[in-house]
Write a structure and sequence with these properties.
The chain is α+β, with helices and mostly antiparallel strands and 169 residues long. The protein contains five helices and nine strands, in the order βββββββββααααα.
Length: 169
């Protein structure tokens, strides 16, 4: 569990459709990692990030499940740790602008992206190379998508898919 000498260590279990839950009492994995000279090289500065779970079960509706890491969830911490079962979108090992992080997550959570991924990948693992090879909207379009998402009360799947169609026209 977190203490004064630790920073958050994030696992896929910390993320859900409703947001980030941290810490999770009773979780079998650690919620925090010691902040010291040995661990600092593996940590990222606190900020907005987009994360994608690397594994999904065959029974899950979606293969690609993206979430936004919001720094205010963790209080005033200088660094964040990301466990290896998460793919992390960052800029030069720094956080992303908030709208870009949100836009990436919305884009990756569209039905079109999930269907495209299922066409070229028969497995339930989403690795970094898979994500790098995908075609993305421009940075400006992703930021616009993120700004739109911030203004929505709820992000229903049909609204997300319709907004992507509008954006791509």
């Amino acid at each position: 569990m977190p203490s004064e000498s630790t920073v958050p260590l994030l696992y896929p279990g910390h993320f859900s459709k409703v947001g980030t839950t941290w810490p999770i009492k009773g979780m079998k994995k650690p919620n925090a990692i010691e902040l010291n000279a040995d661990t600092q090289k593996w940590l990222y500065p606190s900020g907005f990030y987009c994360v994608v779970r690397r594994f999904s079960s065959k029974e899950e509706k979606r293969r690609i499940v993206a979430s936004v890491v919001e720094p205010n969830t963790f209080g005033n911490v200088p660094m964040l740790g990301f466990e290896n079962h998460l793919n992390l979108f960052h800029e030069n090992k720094q956080g992303l602008p908030e709208s870009l992080a949100r836009g990436l997550a919305v884009f990756l959570n569209t039905t079109a992206v999930d269907e495209q991924f299922r066409r070229f990948s028969g497995h339930t693992q989403v690795n970094a190379t898979d994500l790098k090879l995908m075609k993305y909207p421009s940075r400006d379009d992703l930021i616009q998508l993120g700004e739109w998402a911030t203004q929505q009360e709820t992000l229903a799947q049909d609204k997300i898919d319709a907004k992507l169609r509008d954006l791509m026209l």
